[in-house]
Amino acid sequence: xxxxxxxxxxxxxxxxxxxxxxxxxxxxxxxxxxxxxxxxxxxxxxxxxxxxxxxxxxxxxxxxxxxxxxxxxxxxxxxxxxxxxxxxxxxxxxxxxxxxxxxxxxxxxxxxxxxxxxxxxxxxxxxxxxxxxxxxxxxxxxxxxxxxxxxxxxxxxxxxxxxxxxxxxxxxxxxxxxxxxxxxxxxxxxxxxxxxxxxxxxxxxxxxxxxxxxxxxxxxxxxxxxxxxxxxxxxxxxxxxxxxxxxxxxxxxxxxxxxxxxxxxxxxxxxxxxxxxxxxxxxxxxxxxxxxxxxxxxxxxxxxxxxxxxxxxxxxxxxxxxxxxxxxxxxxxxxxxxxxxxxxxxxxxxxxxxxxxxxxxxxxxxxxxxxxxxxxxxxxxxxxxxxxxxxxxxxxxxxxxxxxxxxxxxxxxxxxxxxxxxxxxxxxxxxxxxxxxxxxxxxxxxxxxxxxxxxxxxxxxxxxxxxxxxxxxxxxxxxxxxxxxxxxxxxxxxxxxxxxxxxxxxxxxxxxxxxxxxxxxxxxxxxxxxxxxxxxxxxxxxxxxxxxxxxxxxxxxxxxxxxxxxxxxxxxxxxxxxxxxxxxxxxxxxxxxxxxxxxxxxxxxxxxxxxxxxxxxxxxxxx
Length: 623
Hints:
The protein is of the alpha+beta class. It folds into 6 domains: 2-101, no CATH class; 108-114 and 583-619, no CATH class; 122-138 and 482-578, Chitinase A, domain 3, CATH 3.10.50; 158-173 and 380-476; 176-259 and 372-376, no CATH class; 262-362, Roll (Chitinase A, domain 3). The protein has helices at residues 2-13, 19-26, 33-42, 46-49, 53-64, 71-101, 108-119, 143-153, 176-196, 199-206, 226-229, 277-292, 297-304, 308-311, 329-338, 381-398, 404-410, 436-444, 479-507, 513-519, 545-553, 587-612; strands spanning 121-130, 162-171, 237-243, 246-259, 262-270, 316-320, 344-349, 352-361, 364-376, 416-422, 450-457, 460-472, 526-531, 563-564, 568-578. The protein has a 4-stranded antiparallel beta sheet. The model has no long low-confidence stretch (mean pLDDT 90).
């Protein structure tokens, strides 16, 4: 959608993307995430070796020679073609945006104004009458009022679909009984291990922390008992102990002094390239004979190796740590226990045979081999049933438009408010997993409707009872589809008019804020000091930018006319203003402002392009 808009604009400007530009991005040493995903998908072995652009080139050459009558090979070719098209679109987008970002300029007068807005301070005295002084029921709002407000403020209402919610969350929190269940579980499995002696079997089957047969230095061990692992005798159990919401038992299996890493290179013979194992072994005999005859290892790699990822690096596989659990036992044993720098060895696996040479060893460190058997403290069935009973009672008694607020009060819950959530959003505050089901339902519901949802994910165990407060369908704004929101707007406007009339009456014949306050009920003179034009929150009042803007602009000691803000109606007086001298050199500030504009620029421009292209995005209806 956006790419089509950009492509049309770029074509009119004569912008193009060459195959060389695509290649530069495709084979970059710092690739796009999508390129890395492609690389690891077509070459899974690279997960352990890391990304290599030269290997990617070789793999792409193979893909380009594929037989497109083969469905699997055709799918890989299509994957490659789609990825190149995606990169071309990204390059074109970058070029197009660069035309605008290079035009960003902050003039001296704007930098000077920004300096004043940040550094000039002022003090205010003020009187406020909050809107809450007037009950909603005491103000009459009819459809004519709503129509008039919408006609005057139509541009303020987006034609993008969105929804607003009020909701309460019932967390399913583990109880003491759930905690004891987890503790007893690890104790029971520890007893089973002691009786059977089969540590790895029980840990692999029951522990939530994976079993790793490697050796670890202290700085790689992430548990609170790391120090103890290096003090107790091998075979010792530590715990149970509570850590990160889990009961754990750690056991030391062994301690050794080992190199913290070993570097190795290889000549690899791929089993898939040979008709049988014997012929592969004969080829390896040839490799070893050549090595023993003095042939340099680099030459052996170039002549014999069948591993495309390491050939271009002279067979180098990089550094391996003793904590690396991906190595076969035979390679692990040869690297860390039986050989040293310069030694060679063979290692056979179902995939082939490696002829390896150790080319480097790191510093010697004390290492520990250990495991952790643990169990998370999760809510049990009884706990879930208790919470469900409470939620069901709320849903039965208070899940209607008229009773929802009463239920919040009776259950003493704190409601959450989510305003104008875009139709394609995934998240709601306080819900840590996808809230698509809630948002999608809300867009189809009527304001006031209530529904219960549950999220039984590992990261988000809770029930949510949601009420829709307003829905913007993305259609032309009407009173009907904006009634709750328009009603609040008109209520505030009418309350503001009533309160300002009170203030104007109180100001008649008064020469100070104290006199005005005396003439008003429910008011007092308050102060706010050390404000700047950029102040967002006023101490003791909260956020109300109308107060900041008016206070900054009026002359010192002048009492303002009544004006309305976000929280109520105000009369203010600026009691002090500390002005600043503008520095001659504003180059640093100008550079910061230009960088800020550039950072905001891309998304703002792209959204503006979409808005002007009159694109209607309805994907939210289908996912």
